Every structure is written in structure tokens, then in C-alpha cells.
Amino acid sequence: xxxxxxxxxxxxxxxxxxxxxxxxxxxxxxxxxxxxxxxxxxxxxxxxxxxxxxxxxxxxxxxxxxxxxxxxxxxxxxxxxxxxxxxxxxxxxxxxxxxxxxxxxxxxxxxxxxxxxxxxxxxxxxxxxxxxxxxxxxxxxxxxxxxxxxxxxxxxxxxxxxxxxxxxxxxxxxxxxxxxxxxxxxxxxxxxxxxxxxxxxxxxxxxxx
Length: 209
Prior knowledge:
The protein has helices spanning 2-18, 20-29, 34-56, 65-93, 95-102, 105-116, 123-139, 145-175, 181-196. The mean pLDDT is 83. It has a domain at 67-185. It is mostly helical. Helix 4 (65-93) runs antiparallel to helix 5 (95-102), helix 4 (65-93) runs antiparallel to helix 8 (145-175) and helix 4 packs across helix 9 (181-196).
């Protein structure tokens, strides 16, 4: 039953994630700068999480000094940098290509896990990751020099999204050894929003009809 619930949550998460690019595109078309969109994405979610956790009791939000340094890195790399490169990948390469390139993340997660978490590399894992990477290359048309020249920045941003999303996954795994999933999200998103705050600019004026 627990496993079925986990699969259900994965499907729900995938469905919600699929709407992300639509919201990004719609908000950008309304005149909001890209970095403002991702700032509000992180900031509003963090605010809601902090309010709920404070209502339930402050103990789950306590951090040590080492925790604070860890979450600074988490917020900078796993949230702020990830949000920035991913929304630009959508803007430059389109939602489909950006999403597929972001899912090079399992390759990076495996590498991070071996380097920092002591996990072993297996032939099966290597084969699966190789096929995933080849699929991303085909979707991104990275085999076509003309395509790379035409949309090199979008492809690089998409790969950067995979790299930083992989870091987000590893940061989350490590953080949840000491903190709840809700507290982990609250601190990561809150600190990420603080890193995004200085990058804000006024919205573009709407064209005069």
C-alpha cells in the first residue's frame, strides 16, 4: 500500500511538473521578467511552508551552524541556479526540449552520489544512464551542428538545469537525514529566494495599443 501511494505521488508530481512551463510562458507573456517569475515561485512556496511549520511548532525548523552553511549551498545551487537556468532553457529552447535536457539529472545524481555519498557504480546503472543520455542528445538534436549553432544557449541552459537539478536531488537526500521533507523544502526555497532577490528588475511595460 505504501508503494502504491508512492507511485501515485510520482504521477501527481509529474502532472504538476508538466504545467510548470505553461505557467512560465504565460507569466512571461504578461510582461513579468523571467527572474521575477522564479523568485515568486520560490518565495511564495517558502512563505507558505514556513507559516505551516511555525503553526505546527518551531522545533522542526531549528538549524545548527553546519546546517546553515549546508542550506546556503543548497539554496544557491539547488534552487536559485536551477530555477534561473531552467526558465531560460524554456525561453530559449522550448518546454519540451528544456524538460528532456533537465532529465539528464540522473546522470549527475549518480556521479554526485559516487563522489560524495560513497555509492557504487554498476554496469546496469551505467547502461541505463547511457541510454538516458543518448535520448536527451537525440531530443536536443545535439548531433546536428546546425542545430547547436542555432540554439546552443538553450541546449546549454537545459544541460545546466540537469546539472543543478541533480544537485538539488542530492542535497535533498542528505538534508532529510536530519530534517523533515517539509523543513528541507522550506529552508532550501527560502534561501534560494533570498539569492534571487537582488536579481529582480521592474516588469516590462505593456505595449500601448
